[in-house]
Amino acid sequence: MKPTVHDIAREAGVSLSTVDRVLNGRADVRPKNAERVKDAVKRLGYVRDTNAANLAKKRRYKFVFVLPDGPNHFVETVVEAVREASGAQVTDRADVDVLFVNTADPHAVVKRLMSLDLSQLDGVAIMVPETPQVRDAIAHIKSAGAYVVALVSDLPNSRCDHFVGIDNFSAGQTAGALLGRFLRKERGSILVATNSMVSRDSIERRYGLDKVLSRDFPDLTALPTIEFHDDPDRIRDTLERSVATHPELKAVYSMGSGNAAMLDALRHCARDRDLVVIAHDLTSVTRQALIDGEMDAIIVQNVGHLARSALRVLRAKCDAAEIFEAQEQIRIEIIMRENLY
Amino acid sequence: MKPTVHDIAREAGVSLSTVDRVLNGRADVRPKNAERVKDAVKRLGYVRDTNAANLAKKRRYKFVFVLPDGPNHFVETVVEAVREASGAQVTDRADVDVLFVNTADPHAVVKRLMSLDLSQLDGVAIMVPETPQVRDAIAHIKSAGAYVVALVSDLPNSRCDHFVGIDNFSAGQTAGALLGRFLRKERGSILVATNSMVSRDSIERRYGLDKVLSRDFPDLTALPTIEFHDDPDRIRDTLERSVATHPELKAVYSMGSGNAAMLDALRHCARDRDLVVIAHDLTSVTRQALIDGEMDAIIVQNVGHLARSALRVLRAKCDAAEIFEAQEQIRIEIIMRENLY
DNA sequence: GTTGACGTGACATACGTATGTCAAATAAGG
DNA sequence: CCTTATTTGACATACGTATGTCACGTCAAC
After folding, report:
1. Distance between CA atoms of A319 and B271, rounded to whole angstroms?
2. Are strands B249-254 and B226-227 parallel, antiparallel or unpaired?
3. How far apart are CA A337 and CA A228, in angstroms?
4. Chain-centre distance for alpha carbon A159
5. Of A264-273, A319-328, B21-30, B160-169, which one has max mean pLDDT?
6. Nearest nucleotide (C1') to the CA of residue B58?
7. CA–CA separation, B104 vs A127, rounded Å?
8. How many C-beta atoms surround the C-beta of residue A321 within 10 A?
9. What per-residue confidence (pLDDT) applies to B29?
10. Which residues in chain A belong to E strands, given as ranges?
11. Angle, nearest 10°, between helix axes A168-182 and B168-182?
12. Which residues of chain B make contact with A312, given a CB cutoff of 8 A?
């Protein structure tokens, strides 16, 4: 039988009320009695039954996800995963809202964050680029007692309670290792593309890539990063030029979004080149590209895991419970056609 | 506010007792009233608060894991994962035991299974090869009302409630695809090894391998499977002979356990051959081999996920709750040195 | 009209925890 | 030692559900 507060009271020789005062950090307890209670807790190995406590408190958790708006396949999969996780028993007693912000406009992001009703908010999962204003807004949210986790992109200067996502430096290294092994014994160059190198994710991935290539695969050269800036024409033009001017091109590594347009461009200008293509994130586009053999591998952070992990972490924080690190570790997955899910 | 049984009673115009009788499938309810209650449940969207119910019932779950004994690095990681998951909040209100059986002795396995105290057992996770006797033992356990999940190896003829593990055919395909891509444009053969082809896992993996190689990589030939049977000398001898007689050998694919001895053998007889080496399962041995560059990639089913999933599924079964499929899907992961965790 | 059997409702108690009220015990200050 | 402030304990109620008891209907069969 697991010990209850009653057992603690008996063991410590105090009343239930006192035990409650100690356990919930209320005032008016003599140090000596507090010690006795804490001792009893340790001796009996008492752990609070969170479910019973929540029942008594009529506790409900209010969580908000703040995600980028605009057309982005990856974000769409995240949204879907959040919705799915919110519906499942993962979120017993939790209400989950999803808000969208225009991440290109830091002012709008902050406005959104500052407009949250802090009086009944328990936690926020944020997926936006870090700016000084965002950092301040997070401090504001935290000062109101809500917990904040960074989602997908870390916010290292914002004193978040947790980061839910992958290490993008390792992800870049993984991409490099895959490219190196797929191009075993070959010599040539790799086209590296992303939407924008402003995002820290792309920067970190690029670092990882370069590190692995220079250390383990000196015969492969990564070309300077091409930035698309969400412009299909630009994608097409740049890609075409690169392919034409680099006859030694052996592979393409797409570090960010814009895969649909990039694949489209590749179909036009590199049909006959037998390039190895590696990208990030499992979306309808990349999934189809894998199936069709237009991509060789993609590097994935499981969005279902992301969503569930963010919710679990927020709950654990609210309950002042331990985080089960092994479960919350988001893994860098490598997906090919054969292990597609 | 979420509706409670009280709301249902009011809405249906019956008493609490009647609602309880309907909800818990007890007798003595007129069909008309039962209908009214069910209608009310639907109209108000009532869902039972499992936590409150468990509290009232003083419900505790008793689960048992039945795992292979003997020295096996992979099983050791599974055991550790089960222990870790049992300690964490994953298993609120659950007692988890781990039993070991000698899987080589079907009789002993069955004896173990039949000796379980069925009167207070809610579920079993089983990782043993399927035999007719095992099938009968499982039927016996199920007839006592406990739930059974197959772990790692499916038991397709045993009418288990769930299978927690990867599709080994796809895993074999994944191995094939990796080998094919790592040996792009090369021609040669692949040494395939396992401890024993008796286990269905190895058979399925081999099928998957062959399928992918013949379809996508016709320049690569997989040699007949070598079986080690836990004999280090045999490993060394067989491997040495194969390496010597196959100058065109380009890769080694280890489908099962025995990686330590195999690596040892490779170190002696294939130091200079620059072979691509792929194996299964993340253990201390394969981890170190990745780090040292002795293996190129390993195919992994995350054991933490396995353990937690088995426990969640068993609980869901006990509570007659829905299983959140997306969460319980064990993924085939590809791990290289760069995305090692 | 009586006897059952069956269906039903009112009520009570319990699970482990939280929280409130209020009187009593204790300690500190003079 | 008395007064006052602080600390404590006894008790009650609640959360949503499960489960038990018991009496009151209703209806059919005798």
Report:
1. 55
2. unpaired
3. 27
4. 16
5. B160-169
6. C15
7. 51
8. 15
9. 72
10. 61-68, 94-101, 123-126, 147-151, 162-164, 188-194, 220-222, 226-227, 249-254, 276-280, 297-300, 333-335
11. 70
12. none
Q: Are A93 and A61 in contact (CB under 8 A)?
A: yes
DSSP character string of A246-314: -TTEEEEEE-SS-HHHHHHHHHHH-TTS--EEEEES--HHHHHHHHTTS-SEEEE--HHHHHHHHHHHH
Other Cβ atoms within 10 Å of A84 Cβ, number: 17
Instruction: Tell me if residue B253 falls in helix, strand or coil.
Output: strand
pLDDT of residue B26: 76
Token duo for residue B236: 């060394």
Instruction: Tell me how far apart the alpha carbons of residues A255 and A263 are, in angstroms, rounded to a whole number.
Output: 13
User: Which amino acid is residue A101, in one-letter code?
Assistant: V
Paired tokens of A154: 């870390």
B297 or B274, higher pLDDT: B297
User: Contacts of residue A302 in chain B, CB cutoff 8 Å?
Assistant: 331
DSSP SS3 for B66: strand
Residues in chain B: 341
Asked if residues B79 and B47 have their Cβ atoms less than 8 Å apart, the reply is no
Contact between B98 and B285 (Cβ < 8 Å): no
pLDDT in tens, B29-84: 777 778 888 888 888 888 888 889 999 988 899 999 999 998 889 999 999 999 99
Q: Do A181 and B296 touch (CB under 8 A)?
A: yes
Q: Taking residues B219-234, what's their average pLDDT? A: 89
CA of A51 to C1' of C17 (A): 9
Position of tokens 């300077």? A224
pLDDT of residue B89 exceeding 70: no
Locate A66 and state its tokens: 């703040």
Q: Which domains does chain A have, with CATH numbers?
A: 5-48 (1.10.260.40), 60-165+303-330 (3.40.50.2300), 168-300 (3.40.50.2300)
How distant is C1' of D28 from CA of B31, in Å? 18
Who contacts A44 (Cβ-Cβ below 8 Å, separation ≥6)?
A: A3, A7, A8, A11
